[in-house]
Specification:
By secondary structure, the chain is of the alpha/beta class. It has a single domain, classed as 3-Layer(aba) Sandwich (Rossmann fold), CATH 3.40.50.1110. The chain contains eleven helices and five strands, in the order αβααβααβααβαβααα. A five-stranded parallel beta sheet has the order 2-1-3-4-5, sandwiched between helices. The longest helix is centred in the N-terminal third of the chain and has 26 residues. It is globular. It starts with a helix and ends with a helix.
């Protein structure tokens, strides 16, 4: 008689552990970040610091949420490279299928590289933007095969250079990235003295990343 009772208790305990695990797993918010230096959190002195994703994770944890972050980002990432990773890396595909939130910022490296190999004028700049737009559409199409929620796209701030075409190029790039939920850092971080500690570098300081995170938080709450 004792043996069946012990077995029943063992089964009940095992089922309890299983259901608790499943409940915790389902309650965990999974965040995926795909992008370049802004996603990495490169600061004004070219050091890795806290990115907007890190600040958002901290916010959720303070709200007693379970959070898992997978950051597939690299400072010099291009659209072409990211698209190749998506097509060939099964881990990224699986993570995208499980994700609740996706942050994406890509395209700046493509713009700067393509402009650097051209004797640039407005006609050539428009051709570059057209090419990036097509590549970006292919990227979104691939992402949406696996990720079914809305993508949070983080745009790019104004260049630290006075290059006329470069800043026009960034504005045009932001226009093609502005699909769905878009974080317009060009206007958000327009106070360069406040958000960029090193005028020679492109990436923002801690206050800049906090500002991006706060805008993401407001966007998601809407």
């Amino acid at each position: 008689m004792k043996r069946p009772i012990k077995l029943l208790i063992l089964i009940i305990l095992s089922l309890s552990v299983y259901f608790i695990y499943q409940s915790t797993k389902e309650a965990t918010i999974k965040i995926i970040t795909l992008g370049d230096g802004l996603s990495v959190g490169i600061d004004s002195y070219a050091m890795n610091c806290y990115s907007y994703t890190d600040y958002y994770k901290d916010y959720l944890q303070k709200e007693n949420k379970e959070v898992e972050v997978e950051n597939y980002s690299k400072e010099d990432l291009s659209i072409h490279e990211l698209l190749y990773k998506l097509k060939t890396n099964p881990t990224i595909k699986r993570d995208l299928m499980e994700a609740h939130i996706l942050f994406l910022n890509v395209g700046y490296n493509d713009l700067i590289y393509k402009m650097s190999v051209e004797d640039i004028n407005m006609s050539k700049l428009n051709k570059i933007i057209y090419e990036i737009d097509k590549e970006y559409e292919s990227l979104l199409k691939e992402i949406k095969k696996y990720y079914k929620n809305e993508i949070i796209v983080v745009g790019y701030p104004k260049s630290n250079s006075d290059d006329y075409y470069q800043n026009i190029g960034i504005r045009k790039l932001n226009n093609i990235l502005n699909k769905g939920k878009f974080i317009n850092t060009y206007s958000l971080l327009n106070n360069r003295n406040k958000y960029f500690s090193n005028p020679k570098k492109y990436y923002p300081n801690r206050l800049g990343y906090i500002k991006i995170y706060e805008e993401i938080q407001k966007t998601l709450e809407k």
